[in-house]
Specification:
Elements lengths: L7 E9 L5 E6 L10 E2 L2 E3 L6 H13 L2 E2 L3 E9 L4 E9 L2 E2 L10 E5 L14 H17 L5
Parallel strand pairs: 1-7
Antiparallel strand pairs: 1-4, 2-3, 2-9, 5-8, 6-7
Protein backbone atom coordinates (compact mmCIF):
# COMPACT_ATOMS: atom_id res chain seq x y z
CA UNK A 1 0.00 0.00 0.00
CA UNK A 2 2.97 2.30 0.61
CA UNK A 3 4.19 4.40 -2.29
CA UNK A 4 7.96 3.79 -2.39
CA UNK A 5 8.59 7.37 -3.56
CA UNK A 6 7.11 8.94 -0.41
CA UNK A 7 8.71 8.63 3.00
CA UNK A 8 6.62 7.00 5.70
CA UNK A 9 6.00 9.11 8.80
CA UNK A 10 5.67 6.92 11.91
CA UNK A 11 2.92 8.18 14.23
CA UNK A 12 1.78 7.04 17.68
CA UNK A 13 -1.89 7.68 18.49
CA UNK A 14 -3.62 7.08 21.79
CA UNK A 15 -7.27 6.37 22.40
CA UNK A 16 -8.14 7.33 25.97
CA UNK A 17 -11.00 5.13 27.17
CA UNK A 18 -12.55 6.19 30.48
CA UNK A 19 -14.58 4.24 33.06
CA UNK A 20 -17.83 5.40 31.41
CA UNK A 21 -16.75 3.79 28.10
CA UNK A 22 -16.14 7.12 26.43
CA UNK A 23 -13.17 7.89 24.19
CA UNK A 24 -11.47 11.23 23.73
CA UNK A 25 -10.97 13.05 20.44
CA UNK A 26 -9.31 16.38 19.72
CA UNK A 27 -9.97 18.93 16.98
CA UNK A 28 -6.98 19.90 14.86
CA UNK A 29 -6.16 23.58 15.45
CA UNK A 30 -5.90 26.34 12.86
CA UNK A 31 -2.56 26.32 11.10
CA UNK A 32 -2.26 22.52 10.84
CA UNK A 33 -3.25 20.41 7.83
CA UNK A 34 -6.91 19.39 8.11
CA UNK A 35 -7.63 22.17 10.64
CA UNK A 36 -11.06 21.64 12.23
CA UNK A 37 -11.04 17.87 11.70
CA UNK A 38 -11.30 15.54 14.70
CA UNK A 39 -8.60 12.99 15.50
CA UNK A 40 -7.11 10.91 18.27
CA UNK A 41 -4.26 12.55 20.19
CA UNK A 42 -0.71 11.63 19.32
CA UNK A 43 2.00 12.57 16.89
CA UNK A 44 5.26 11.72 15.18
CA UNK A 45 7.60 9.20 16.71
CA UNK A 46 10.96 10.92 17.21
CA UNK A 47 14.31 9.22 16.48
CA UNK A 48 15.27 6.87 19.30
CA UNK A 49 11.78 6.76 20.86
CA UNK A 50 9.72 3.64 21.40
CA UNK A 51 6.05 3.90 20.49
CA UNK A 52 5.12 4.09 24.17
CA UNK A 53 7.67 6.85 24.82
CA UNK A 54 6.26 8.81 21.88
CA UNK A 55 2.73 8.35 23.28
CA UNK A 56 3.84 9.49 26.72
CA UNK A 57 5.50 12.62 25.29
CA UNK A 58 2.71 13.51 22.87
CA UNK A 59 -0.12 13.07 25.40
CA UNK A 60 1.79 15.10 27.98
CA UNK A 61 2.31 17.88 25.42
CA UNK A 62 -1.22 17.80 23.94
CA UNK A 63 -3.37 16.88 26.94
CA UNK A 64 -1.25 17.51 30.03
CA UNK A 65 -1.64 13.93 31.27
CA UNK A 66 0.74 11.17 32.26
CA UNK A 67 -0.10 7.74 30.86
CA UNK A 68 0.84 4.61 32.80
CA UNK A 69 0.27 1.91 30.22
CA UNK A 70 -1.28 1.11 26.86
CA UNK A 71 -2.57 -1.82 24.83
CA UNK A 72 -1.79 -2.07 21.12
CA UNK A 73 -4.97 -1.86 19.06
CA UNK A 74 -3.91 -1.67 15.42
CA UNK A 75 -1.54 -0.19 12.87
CA UNK A 76 -3.03 1.65 9.92
CA UNK A 77 -1.47 3.42 6.97
CA UNK A 78 -3.01 6.41 5.27
CA UNK A 79 -1.90 8.53 2.35
CA UNK A 80 -2.76 12.16 3.14
CA UNK A 81 -1.85 14.89 0.63
CA UNK A 82 0.75 16.31 3.06
CA UNK A 83 2.23 12.99 4.31
CA UNK A 84 2.10 9.22 4.08
CA UNK A 85 1.60 8.01 7.67
CA UNK A 86 1.80 4.71 9.49
CA UNK A 87 -0.26 5.15 12.65
CA UNK A 88 0.37 2.85 15.61
CA UNK A 89 -2.83 3.01 17.65
CA UNK A 90 -3.01 2.12 21.35
CA UNK A 91 -5.81 2.09 23.91
CA UNK A 92 -5.04 3.89 27.16
CA UNK A 93 -7.16 3.21 30.24
CA UNK A 94 -4.75 4.32 32.96
CA UNK A 95 -3.57 7.91 33.21
CA UNK A 96 -3.05 10.67 35.74
CA UNK A 97 -4.46 14.17 35.27
CA UNK A 98 -7.50 15.67 33.59
CA UNK A 99 -7.12 15.91 29.79
CA UNK A 100 -6.93 19.55 28.70
CA UNK A 101 -6.38 21.06 25.26
CA UNK A 102 -2.81 22.27 25.89
CA UNK A 103 -2.41 23.28 22.23
CA UNK A 104 -5.68 25.24 22.13
CA UNK A 105 -7.52 22.30 20.58
CA UNK A 106 -11.11 21.49 21.44
CA UNK A 107 -11.66 18.10 23.10
CA UNK A 108 -14.73 15.88 23.06
CA UNK A 109 -15.57 12.68 24.91
CA UNK A 110 -17.58 10.33 22.69
CA UNK A 111 -19.75 7.41 23.83
CA UNK A 112 -18.32 4.10 22.61
CA UNK A 113 -21.80 2.54 22.53
CA UNK A 114 -23.44 5.31 20.49
CA UNK A 115 -24.46 4.70 16.90
CA UNK A 116 -23.17 8.12 15.83
CA UNK A 117 -20.57 10.59 17.01
CA UNK A 118 -21.56 14.08 18.09
CA UNK A 119 -18.61 15.64 16.22
CA UNK A 120 -17.52 15.97 12.61
CA UNK A 121 -15.65 15.95 10.32
CA UNK A 122 -13.23 13.17 11.24
CA UNK A 123 -9.78 12.68 9.78
CA UNK A 124 -10.11 9.85 7.23
CA UNK A 125 -7.94 7.43 9.25
CA UNK A 126 -10.03 7.94 12.43
CA UNK A 127 -13.10 5.96 11.34
CA UNK A 128 -11.33 2.57 11.02
CA UNK A 129 -9.74 3.23 14.42
CA UNK A 130 -13.17 3.77 15.99
CA UNK A 131 -14.50 0.61 14.33
CA UNK A 132 -11.55 -1.40 15.68
CA UNK A 133 -12.02 0.15 19.14
CA UNK A 134 -15.65 -0.98 19.20
CA UNK A 135 -14.59 -4.52 18.28
CA UNK A 136 -11.82 -4.43 20.92
CA UNK A 137 -14.29 -3.37 23.62
CA UNK A 138 -16.84 -6.00 22.56
CA UNK A 139 -14.13 -8.69 22.90
CA UNK A 140 -13.25 -7.44 26.39
CA UNK A 141 -16.91 -7.51 27.45
CA UNK A 142 -17.39 -11.08 26.19
CA UNK A 143 -14.10 -12.26 27.68
CA UNK A 144 -12.56 -13.25 24.35
CA UNK A 145 -9.84 -10.62 24.83
CA UNK A 146 -8.02 -9.52 27.94
CA UNK A 147 -6.82 -5.93 28.34
Amino acid sequence: MSDARRPVTEVAAGILLDSQQRFLMGQRPVGKPYAGYWEFPGGKVEAGETLFQALQRELQEELGIVIHGSVDLMTIEHDYPHAYVRIHVSVIRDWTGEPTGCENQALSWQDLGADHLTIEPLLPAALPMIQQLKQFYAEIKTGTRLA
